[in-house]
What we know:
Layout: H1 9-23, H2 30-40, H3 48-64, H4 68-79, H5 99-104, H6 109-125, H7 130-141
Amino acid sequence: MTEPALLPEQELQDELSFYTLGLADPAFIHQHIVDAFAAQNATPERKPIYVVFALIGLYLHLERGFTGRQVQLAHMRLGTPRRNWIMPQLPELRGSIRVGHVLAAPPGQHRDHMIEEWCVSVWEAYRDVHGEIAAIAERELGVS
């Protein structure tokens, strides 16, 4: 796999966001890039809610078949009432596909497919917390 463009990750994410928001698709794939980026670029200094929500989003999409719109609604349900979230274990490597790889794919089906592959890559990197995230989704959202 070739290296992504040498732009800061956030600038690349902004460019990809422009693309996904411009699609105006009912499935709202934009939510998936938000979650993949958040989980891949998480640091111990971030608030735990940031990482937990991202991982729940990836779980709901990849393991339970939720669309981005359904994930967005689940995030809204999780946001009220406020909870004290615990930071999950952050793996050292968080996926071989990065936002730059996604942007390198031609717009349309190829790029949309790369978004899916990026999500899989990031989710798989967090394999040690899959059970923990599934338990949170079941407890908080009734998703099993």
